[in-house]
Amino acid sequence: MDIAASDIIFYILAFVIAVSSVLTVTSKKLLHSAVYLLFTLLATAGIYFELNYHFLAAVQISVYIGGILVLLVFSIVLTSKVGEKMDTASVCKAAITALLVILGALFCGYIINTYLPDVKMAPAQQEVDMNTIGNSLLGTGRFEYILPFEAISVLLLACIIGGILIAKNNKKKEGEEE
Question: Which of 17, 39, 138, 176 has the fewest Cβ atoms nearer than 10 Å?
Fold first, then answer.
């Protein structure tokens, strides 16, 4: 059995995603969780590159890593102490979480086994050019996404304003304590 280099790269990226995802949700320190999330998102972008989805990989890096993760790190740094550890979950919460994870995995397995054999592989198509993607994202017709695009921009603007207000309030509190 010959293993291609692309298969080895895929398995490495899948391993990085699995390990860093688990570390993201089990880490006691918030900033460490954010760094593990960074590795998860980077490995996901690597898989997109491996599949020749260069636009989707660029979006993954620019939007999720460049925007969302940076905003998350800023909110962690501004609202808590960097070295602060999170509280440990109670045994009851951990048991309920484990049960829900197992049920979710079983449900996903059921859906995959039930519907995947019925899915026929689509014939290979040519790569979509950037003009088509841009028109689909910013068009106003059917199956075009200007409204969700604008809603996300308003949401990000609200997050930025909220971050500024939190930073301003923290600065005032630090000035009062001194």
Answer: 176
Both 30 and 95 in one domain: the answer is: no
Task: Based on the fold, state whether residues 142 and 77 are members of the same structural domain.
Answer: no
pLDDT beyond 80 at 145: no
**Spatial distance between the Cα atoms of 146 and 130, rounded to a whole number of angstroms:** 16
More confident residue, 108 or 88: 108
Q: Write out the residue range of the structural domain in which residue 11 sits.
A: 1-85
Pull the structure tokens for residue 77.
């740094």
Based on the fold, state whether residues 28 and 78 are members of the same structural domain: yes
What confidence category does residue 99 fall into, taking pLDDT thresholds of 50, 70 and 90?
very high
Q: Which residues pair with 85 in a beta bridge?
A: 29
Same domain, 1 and 48: yes
Nearest-Å Rg of the Cα atoms of the chain is 21
Q: Which residues contact 2 (CB under 8 A, 6 or more apart)?
A: none
Using CA atoms, how far apart are residues 7 and 3, in angstroms rounded to an integer? 6
CA–CA dist 65, 72 (Å, integer): 10
- The pTM (predicted TM-score) of the whole model is 0.59
Give the angle 19-88-97 at the CA atoms, nearest 5°: 65
The token pair that represents 76 in the structure block = 């962690």
